[in-house]
Amino acid sequence: MTIGLTGGIGSGKSETARILRELGALVIDADLVGHETYRRGEPAWDQVVAAFGREVIGEDGEIDRRELGRIVFGDPDKLKRLTDIVWPKIREGLENRITLERSRDGSKVLVVEAAVLFEAGWDDLFDEIWVVTAPEADVLRRLELQRNQKPEQTRARLRVQMNDREREQRADVTVRNDEDTAALAARVRQLWIDRTHRSSQGRHDG
Fold first, then answer.
1. In terms of CB atoms within 10 Å, which end of the chain has fewer, N or C?
2. What is the DSSP string of the chain?
3. CATH class for domain 1-25+109-200?
4. What does the pLDDT read at residue 204?
5. What letters, b where the CB count within 10 A reaches 16 and e where it falls short, cover 148-160?
6. How far apart are CA 24 and CA 21, in angstroms?
7. Contact indicator for 110, 2 with CB cutoff of 8 Å
8. pTM of the predicted model as reported, rounded to 2 decimal places
9. What's the order of all strands across the beta sheet hosting 173-176?
10. Phi-psi region for residue 110, left (φ > 0), alpha (ψ -120 to 50) or beta?
11. Residue range(s) in the chain whose domain bears CATH number 3.40.50.300
12. Chain-centre distance of CA 16, in angstroms?
């Protein structure tokens, strides 16, 4: 069983991924796969440098993701240029990793945490899509505490993301993160029991 886990900034999807890992899932972070795709020596490194200039190269020779983010944030054309380079490479990396893990242990539940799962068109890679949602007030407070990010900065990030309603319409499961961590853990645990049992029953029936 493969689960695509998504949600907006500050929604709690990383905490949900952590809980799923504790429950026995193998969790893959699509961001980390993305970082691997444009490491020095990889084809995407050359493409990113060609598109955005050598100023995106850090002192270590790797792509400076903070500088790259500064260049593309707020500029739809530059952001699309970047995602056109990186998203297909990340998809290829995810497909390879999913295939590898299935060959190792087909019984394990595999979760891929990916903020841009729908935007990148990766939803067809998974048996189910879970979306984590949280009230905006909670998101603003959480990011101010965790990242010292001002509310106006968070709102700017939220405006350029797909909204929760769109995500929920396309997802199979909604994980509401509107209380404390204990409540989130309880909800995720119950969903884990319900969904993995259903998946197991489907395999036995087949």
1. C
2. -EEEEEE-TTSSHHHHHHHHHHTT-EEEEHHHHHHHHTSTTSHHHHHHHHHH-GGGB-TTSSB-HHHHHHHHTT-HHHHHHHHHHHHHHHHHHHHHHHHHHHHH-TTS-EEEE-TTTTTTT-GGG-SEEEEEE--HHHHHHHHHHHH---HHHHHHHHHTSPPHHHHHHH-SEEEE--S-HHHHHHHHHHHHHHHHHHHHHHHHH-
3. alpha beta
4. 46
5. ebeeeebeeebee
6. 5
7. yes
8. 0.88
9. 26-29, 110-113, 2-7, 128-133, 173-176
10. beta
11. 1-25+109-200, 26-104
12. 11
Kindly report, residue by residue over 166-201, the tens digit of the pLDDT.
999 999 999 999 999 999 999 999 999 998 876 655
Question: 177, 132 in Cβ contact below 8 A?
Answer: yes
CATH top class, domain 26-104? alpha beta
Which amino acid, 33? V
The label of the residue with tokens 């026995």 reads 24
Return the ∠ at Cα 111 (arms to 97 and 35), rounded to 5°: 55
Query: Mean pLDDT across the chain, nearest whole number?
Result: 89
Query: Residue 107 — pLDDT band, cuts 50, 70, 90?
Result: low
CA angle 19, 20, 23 (to 5 degrees): 90
